[in-house]
Each structure stands twice: as C-alpha cells, then as structure tokens.
Fold this protein.
Amino acid sequence: MIRDSSSSVPSLGKDLLGLEPLSADQIQLILDTAEPFKEVSERAIKKVPTLRGKTIVNLFYEASTRTRIAFEFAEKRLSADTVNIAAAGSSVEKGENLVDTARNLEAMRIDMVVMRHPASGAAEFLAERIPSNVINAGDGWHEHPTQGLLDLLTIRDKTGRIDGLKVCICGDILHSRVARSNIWGLLKLGAEVGVCGPKTLLPRGIEELGVQVLPHPEEAIAWADVLNILRLQLERMKGGYIPSLGEYYRVFGITQERLERAPKDILILHPGPMNRGVEIDSRVADGPHSVILQQVTNGIAVRMAVLYLLAGGMPERADVAKTEDVLAGGTT
Amino acid sequence: MRPVLIQGGRVLDPSREFDGVADVLLRDGRIEAVEANIAAEDVETIDASGKIVAPGLVDVHVHLREPGKEEAETVATGARSAAAGGFTSVCAMPNTDPVTDNQAAVGFIVKQASAANSARVYPYGTISIGQKGEHLAEFAKLIEAGAIAVSDDGHPVRSSHLMRTALEYAQAFGIPVADHCEEPSLAHGAMHEGVVASRLGLRAIPAAAEEIMVARDVILSELTGGHIHLCHMSTRGSVDIIRRAKERGVNVTAEVTPHHLTLTQAECEGFNTNAKMNPPLREEADVAVLRAALQDGTLDMIATDHAPHHYEAKERDFDEAPFGIVGLETALGLCIKELVNGGVLSLPELVNRMSTEPARVFHLDAGTLQVGKPGDVVVFDPGATWTVDPTQFYSKSRNTPYAGHVLTGRVERTVVGGRTVFERK
C-alpha cells in the first residue's frame, strides 16, 4: 500500500490499536478528517464510494450493539464490502481461536479487520500477525480508541477546544477500556484529566499516568468542565467491588441534585449503554447539557475517518473522496 | 570409565573456601584429588586454563513436565538443558500429571532420570495428596522412592493447619517443606499490580499476595521448628519478613530467580507473554532489595524456576498464556553479567549460591569438590560473551524473555559422576 511519506501530515500507520501510541497530531488528524464525513449521514442517500472494493471483517468476540453497528454503518456508507463474525469463544479457547482466525482471514485476502475481544492486548496480538489493517473496537480493559475519539470529537464540537479543559471520568475506571482511551486522548490534546469513583474501582498507580483522583462526585463536579460517566457493569457487584447498586447510586451517582450545586454548566457524556438510576440520573442523561446522543452520531463520522485514513486516504482529500475514487490506483 | 584430570583452571570450592589454580582428578566417579600439578597416567585430560572449575551447579526449583506435558519438556531434555547450563543436580517440582504424590510417580522420575544419564534429577514429593491441600501425602514412602523435599508448588497450601502439620511431620525426615507463597484470593491476575498493569488493563497480583503467605509460613515455622523453604521470592516486603525471621533464628531458607534479580514489570509492555510469570516481575525497588538480600544472605540461593511451555501455549493473549519461562541455560550467564560484573556477588560467592548453599540446604550430596565426594564439576569461561538464541536451547521449549540478550559467562563442560555430560563444541 502506498503512503505519502513526504507529506508533513502524519499517517496513522497500519493499525489503530489505541490512543496511547498516537501523537497529538495523529489524533487531531482523525478528528479533523471526521468533519467532512459527518455530512454523509445527514444525506437522503447516505452513501459515498470512498471505500468501494475494500473488504472489511467485523470480528466481535464480545457482545456489542452500539460499536458494531456504528462500524457497520460507517463501512457501508463508505461503500466497503463487510462481513460480520460474531465469535462467542469460550475463555479457554479464545487464544487459540484468535490465531487460527487470523490465519484464515489472511488467506481470504481481506483489507481490514475491526475487532472486539475480551482479552487486553488481543488487537495488538492480531495486528502483529496479519498484514491487513486492524482496528481495535475494544480489547479487554485496555483500550477502545474509536470511543475515545468520538468522545473527543463530541467535546470539541461543544466547547471548541480540548486544550485546557477539565474532564473527569466517573465510575469504574479499573475495568474500563473507555477510561484508558479517554485518558490518553485527553492528556495528549492538553486537557486536565480527573478520575472519580470508589477506590475499589480505580487502578493502582493511576496518578502516575498524569491524572488526578477526585474521591467524591461533589469534588468532581466542583472541578470539571466535562463529566464522562462510565457504565457500571452490573457484574462488578458480584465481584465484591461495591456492596450494592443502591449504595453506589447514593454515593457516586451523578444526580441532578449534585449537578445543581456546580459552579458552572457541565457537559455530560456517557458511552452507553446507561444504567439509569445507578451511575446516572435520568434527568442528567436527558438534560440540556447531555451530549450522549451526539456521541452516537459522531461515532459514525469518527469511524469513517479512521477507515478512510487506514485505507491510505489523504486527509486533505477526504471531501473529494466522497465523490471521486481517490483511493483507486493509489492503493492495492 | 577413564579417570578425568581437569588441568590448570582456577578452582573455586566454596565448601572449604578454596580459590586457586589447581588440577582436579576424578576417578571412579568421585573426586580423588584437588592439588597443584597432579601427575596421573592413563587419564582423560581436560585443559581448563583460563577457566573456572567449580562444583556442578545445583538448582532446587525446576519443572520438567514429564509425565503429562512431554511436548514442553521431558526429564531427559530437562536434564540435558540443565547440563548445558552447568547444573549437575536439579530438583524437579511435583506438579506433573499425574502429580508425584506417591511412590510410583516419584519412582518414575528417578527411572527417567537414570535413563537420561545426564544431570542428576531429584524429585520433589507433594505435601498433600493430589496437591489438593487436604490430606498429607506419605512423606516416608515418597522419600524412600527418591524424593528429597516436599512442596505443593503452584497450588499453595491454603490451610494453615495442613502447613503446620507438614512442617511438624517433615522434621522426622529432615527434609525442607517448600512453599510457593501466594494468598489465592488476592492472586487472580496475570502480572504485577502496578502502573504497567494499570496502563495495559491487565488483571494484577499485588505484592501482598506473596507477603501474606511468607509471613504465615514464617510464623508456622517458628511455631513448629520445621524447616520452611520459600520459593522464588519476588518482593521487598517478603525480604523484610525473612530478614526479621532469620534474626530471630527461625528455620527459614529462601530462593530467588535470575529473572526476578534482573527484570521488572516493564518487560510485560507490548503484552509480551514471555514476561508472564508467577510470581510476576515486580518493580525496580524490588530488584534492588532482592539483590541486596542475596548479597547479605537473607536470600540463601539462586534457583531458576525453569518452566518450559510449548510455543503454542505462549502464542496467545496475555490473560490466557501460562506463567513461566525456561531458565537453566541462561542462569549462569545472567548471574555473572548482572550480579558478578554488577558488583553484587564475587565469583566464588556466586558459585556458593548456585551450588554449595542449595546442596547444603536440601541435603544433597553435591556442591563441593572435597575428596571422596561425587565427581560433579562444571568448567566455565567467566569472561566469554554470547547471544541468547532460543533455537539453540537443549530444552524442548524456548519461552524466554532473554532472546537476543548478550550474556557473560559460558559453560564449557559439565561433568556428572566423573563423566562428561555436556561439552561445548
């Protein structure tokens, strides 16, 4: 595949595995490239020829609604040929299955794999073993880069900037790939990042990543411009990390009452699916400062941008790519 | 078998604090003389000038996988791997399939070792039947069949009552009870709990999981007077507990691996499954304390925890990959490079911690060049540098984080019972 190495514009490389390995310029590039793609989804006929002839496999080893559908829409609206594989591997088999699956996909001459996998590091594992582009759609607790990107884009849409903003990620940080991708993306673009949750759900040494710990939601609300409220996975209660959902809501829930004491308006994000009445109050989720549905809409544009860039598309030609076959000839 | 005369090397025998140029004569499988300029006829002579001649190395903690996982290692390949690493005696952990909780299983290891005719292999028996932590195994019968110590290895003894009983009962036989210290309810993880695991999003094992069991075992040893041997110590907290126990005169000994003395959690970056081991690689502060503790004798000996795994077993995501790395063939080169050249131990002290001390603690007839003792000798070049190439290992497995590392100190010849079992070509 031909890449423009002479350009000063940074390319993404072969894969999108996480936001930690990306530079600020690379992240900005994806966000900027997403802008012209937003409009495609607003058309009556939501389809452009950009990825015509590309074959993309959506390989989901874990249940997903929002992410899988957003990727599929992004791919289809760019005219790629897509195949969905939902692999419900057992925990014992999943490692072996992944190697074999990779080899089989390789043999089928595909162009890209979008993968969701329950094991941290699975996307990197696959990317090292196949020549196709790999997009991480969530690996274990590690990273979920397109979610991080769509959160960044949504914040940027509303506030006009990331640099200098105070963003607090609330809830189960320990088990969250969304948290990790958000932390890297926000820090690289110059935001201050806080995390807020019970200590049982905060990873050890999280401060060493450059974030500050805000022990209670009251402190988070007093400090932040933006709250990104994570879903509390209900199985965490069984794991003994919190005593009950009711107590969690009482102490850590983001409620209207708590937000009303904020010194300023706070932008509310949530990656979904929400547990209303657990980590977030309905009045907050549906309130005037919630951008939860804009996140979903932006999720498609961001993923179109990632697909386009990894396919070898030039960022400055993204607009043209919607009408002309700019990839043909330049790529294999 | 012709007598062997090893000529002109620098002989290190920590068992009698000998360090000097001498010849070593082996006859009928035993040490006959260690003197300057031995004149002997009809002998096989080996020129060791410029080399170190020392009692063969002793490793009290290896996994040889047979029976059960012969695709990863067998007693024979493990013994040859040991010989290539300069080891003349290794102690095989009991977590085979079936486990060595009975005379037949122990006897099988002894038989395979005898057939391999390479480094000596001494089996561990289990502490409990099936390593289940419920019923005490028959120590007397295990020892009769050839066991030299007992351990439930990777299935740490949960029940404090059982551990107490084992420590009491083992005293009748004068054998150590070895424990892999891990509080199971805290140890559901794939690597050390710290900033790297937090970044990678991996389940993690806190240092406390080890330290809690170290403290318990020390307390039970103090209660019973039994000899507790603590396997592969990895944290500074464990060292602190052992140091204070030894000051009180508790009957405790401890080992440390070359990898815990040389690597940290950072090795797991990139989800490197060859850096996944249990106990996990810890922090730089731990490495520094482990080195100091080896130097001052708080940690008694170096043991490799040689843990072969088939290629496919490690070729998977980090969570699912098994724990452990092979260690026999890299141990000496790592220890000379990092510990001797790094100023932690002198060369004679290293030989002491890799041969004489482990033999003494485990009551093995090894670790010495005294006249009349078994003719187990290693000849190595302490200055030779070489690059680790796992494809050249004698072990069946290649799971090492040291591939491509340049090490210092290389085994030239390994002699067991007066017979050369490894010679570098």
Summary: Confidence is low (pLDDT under 50) at residues 1-7 of chain A. The first helix of chain A runs from residue 24 to 38.
